[in-house]
Structure formats: structure tokens, C-alpha cells
Amino acid sequence: MVRMVTTSLLMVLLAGVGVFAADCPGCPGVLHAGSPVALFYSSDDPDSLRAFRVLEQVEGLLPGFELTAQDITEPAGGQSWQVMVLVYGTDGELSLPAALISGGMVTGIGPVFEAIRELVDAAAVPAEGFLPSIGAAARRLRVQMLLGFDSFLYWAVAGAGLVDGINPCSLSILIFLAAYLLYAGRSKSRILLLGSAFVGGILVVYLSIGFGLLAVLNAPWFAGVYRFLYPLFGLVTLVLGGLSLVDAVRLRRGETRRVILQLPDKLKRRAHAEIRRWSKRSPTMVFAGFAAGMAVTVFEFPCTGQLYLPTLTLIGDPLTSTQSLTYLLVYNGMFVVPELLVVAASAILSAKVVANSYQKLLSGVKVVTALVFFGLAIYYLTLTASVF
Q1: Are 330 and 157 in contact (CB under 8 A)?
Q2: Tally of domains in the chain
Q3: What is the pLDDT of residues 7-63, one digit of tens each?
Q4: End position of a domain, from candidates 91, 124, 147
Q5: Could you give the CA distance from residue 332 to residue 160 in angstroms, rounded to a whole number?
Q6: Burial class, 382, CB count within 10 angstroms (exposed 0-12 / middle 13-18 / buried 19+)
Q7: Domain range spanning residue 249?
Q8: Residue 67 phi, psi dihedral angles, 5° rounding
Q9: The last residue of a domain, from among 147, 167, 189
Q10: Can you tell me the distance from the alpha carbon of 385 to that of 145, in angstroms, rounded to the nearest whole number?
């Protein structure tokens, strides 16, 4: 069944790209000759450096797109920049990045990207033939992603964090925590306190992993590795999406034990043991919850990290954003929202009520998770088609 679902998904993806290509008369195989852009940027400014790298990618994707870029920190670029400031500046100032397009000066990364999109649309020459059209469609998608991703990325990251937060791997442990504390005779206020501290421990470990991975992803030496991560994460997220759909079908049939993407029984027992150990031995409830949350997160990360790692790669790509730390905080903030809601509901109602309600929704959660995986797969496979 898993092989059949994965094969079907690949066929649907390829067919979708083919339809997009066939119904896309503006998909640029090349641009009209003479579509020059003169970019002025500073290698010391993250936004303008990103603009330079993005437009380099656009130039490689679209034959006919002519880019001339000058770094104003270099002597020649600095002299040219002074001339541009005198001609186009206001009160002797001109912001970066700045691009000379069709005889006009455009400043700021957002306006520059918008002007480039308009130039690409106006100068596009449609590709001829089915296979060339597929390649042109992939390149067009890549260009649109590069130039218009900022407005979409915030909501994509927030949504991915929220979906990760309703992951059965983490919520099932929280429900067990509340049930165990209730069984041990803890009051509802104590359950709420310890559960919140537990979520705090999860957040600290998740953020620590995120900061560490982003440090690697943002390292200069890692820039050349990204092109090889695109096909890897594209295939991985496609397979995970297919497995999530398989899990959704099995959950609807009541075959809970046959769910594929879940925490292994051995790690579940280890996580439960850690909760019991900290709840019994620690002199303070807050420290017990916090320490247990940190320990359990380490054990369950192979399960919860299935969505976290591809998203980190997305926000860590210097072509995607210069605000990777901001997006990391957005992701983790949304991740803990459902966790805190489960803690509150378990304290106010009961862990049994929450567990029964969540069990009924679990199949739908798997479908939503599959859609997120497929979205990431389409993005990464589109990058692969445009880079290789």
C-alpha cells in the first residue's frame, strides 16, 4: 500500500506540473533580448546581499536576463554608487539594494523583486513543446518563489509550527503526563503548573536544536550544499506525506497499532519512565516538569523532527530569508500553542476526555500533516527541477 500511494503521488505531481506548463503561455523559456538590470548592493548588508544572490539565481534560470551587479564596498562599485546617488538620490541618500531597471531606479528589496517580476512577465517568450514547457514551468515557479516568497513564508512557517504542535508524538506524551498526575492524586492546579513547565522544557530543547541547526545552515561553507538538500528533502517529505495518508486510513479503520509515523513503543516507555521519575524525585513541581519536558523531547525528537528539519532548511536558506531567527521563534511559538491548550484542557476537564476527543480527530490531523508534507515536497522538487 505504501509503495502504491507513493507512486500515485509522484504521478500526480508530475501531471500537475505538466498541466501547469500546458496552461501557462507566459512561462518564460527565455526572455526577450535586452532585459538588463543593474544592481547595487553591499556585501555588509544582509538584505542587499540576499537580493544579489537571488538575482544571480534568476539570471541562471532565465536566458536573456542580463544582470550587472556592483558591490559598493568595492572601489569601482563605490564610485558608480556615488554617481547613482547624485542622479537618483533624495537629499544625497539612496537606500540599498537598488536596481536600475528600464531606465528607472528602484530601491528596497521588496520593490526591486516586484519590479523584476514585472520585467519577467513583460519580456517572457513562451517555450515551445511539452517537455521544454515543463522545464520552463519549473523555472517560472522557482523565479516566483525567489522573488515573492517573503509574503508567503511567515504564514507557511506559522502553519507548519501549528501542525507540528498537534503531532501525536508530542501530544500523546502530554496527555499521559496529565493522566499520570491525576492518578497520583495531584490537584488540577498542580497538573496545570507541572504541565506548563513540561511544555517549557520542550520549548527550550526545540529552540536549542533550531539555533544549532540554523548556525550550520547559515554558515558560508554550507551554501553549496543546499542544492543537494533540495532533492533529498523533496523525496523525504513526499514519502512522509504518503505515509501520513496511509496512517490516516488505518486510524479511520481503528488500526491504531499499525500506524507507521508514531513514537516507537520502546521510546514511549522510556518517556513515560522519565515522567514518573521526575514527578516522584524532584522537590519542586516546576523543576520536575521542566526537566521531564527536556528529557522526553530528546527521546521523541526522531518522531517530532520529521516536520521541523525540512522547515528549518527552508528558513535557513539565505535565498529564502535573512530573518531565519525570527521565523524560528514564530515556528516554536505556534508549536507550543496546542501543547498549552492540551495542558489546560487536561487540568480543567480530564486527561481521559482530552485523550478521547483527540483520538477522534487523529485521522484528520494525519491528513493535515500530509498536506503540509506535500507542500514542502512540491517546493523542494521544484527547486530540484530548476537547479539541476
Answers
A1: yes
A2: 2
A3: 444 444 443 444 333 334 444 444 444 568 889 998 888 888 888 888 887 887 777
A4: 147
A5: 10
A6: buried
A7: 151-387
A8: -110, 130
A9: 147
A10: 13
